[in-house]
Design brief:
Number of helices: 6
Shape: globular
Radius of gyration: 19 Å
Order of helices and strands: HHEEEEEHEEEEEHHHE
Helix content: 10-25%
Structural class: alpha+beta
Distance between the termini: 45 Å
């Protein structure tokens, strides 16, 4: 969703702007953003860095799940405090009533206060980092919110766990997950199952 400032810039945009500056990557970075969740896997540890509401969930060998990231939403107390300290506000669980995330890459319009360090901006790309012992994990799911809008953490873990023994490729499990979650009728789904879906499954071999 574009903010009033970006809409203003787009209204004034012309082909000549493409010759440098605002018409190209700077314009895109001001009004467009994305989340990020990444995992660094060592022989002994799993480190996860997250900014936004993409999510990393590990399946423990017991079959239960372990959260390795936490969604960054504007109404989270710590996130809301940073937003307000930076001169913003939260309305209807959105930053300035517009953006439904409190951390992201891009969205530079919300990161323009030169008096503040990057991690104190209204929207920040500063990640939250968590870790766990690799030996405890059977597999790791990294997915965007299109998946988590449709499945709980445990439902996703159970879905994958129940198919690992019967599927020759992990990619087949992801395909089935998408088929299960993608809305068949967008008009009756209330938006659930209509969002972008991206998923990576990392299986740890014994």
């Amino acid at each position: 969703m574009l903010t009033p400032e970006v809409n203003k810039q787009l209204t004034n945009y012309s082909e000549d702007d493409n010759k440098g500056g605002w018409g190209t990557s700077e314009m895109i970075a001001m009004g467009v953003g994305c989340t990020a969740v990444v995992a660094l896997i060592t022989p002994t540890e799993i480190y996860v860095a997250n900014a936004g509401d993409s999510r990393a969930v590990a399946c423990l060998k017991s079959g239960s799940h372990k959260e390795l990231s936490f969604d960054h939403k504007p109404d989270n107390p710590d996130e809301k405090k940073r937003i307000e300290d930076a001169g913003g506000f939260v309305e209807e669980n959105r930053v300035k009533g517009i953006l439904n995330l409190s951390r992201s890459l891009g969205d530079c319009e919300y990161k323009s206060d030169k008096a503040l360090p990057p991690n104190k901006q209204m929207i920040t790309a500063f990640p939250e980092i968590n870790k766990m012992n690799r030996e405890e994990a059977k597999f790791l799911i990294l997915a965007c919110d299109g998946i988590w809008d449709c499945m709980t953490n445990q439902q996703a873990v159970d879905f994958v766990n129940g198919r690992l023994k019967t599927k020759s490729r992990v990619s087949e499990i992801i395909e089935e997950m998408f088929e299960k979650n993608i809305a068949e009728d967008i008009h009756s789904s209330n938006g659930i199952g209509c969002d972008n879906m991206t998923c990576v499954i990392v299986e740890f071999k014994s």
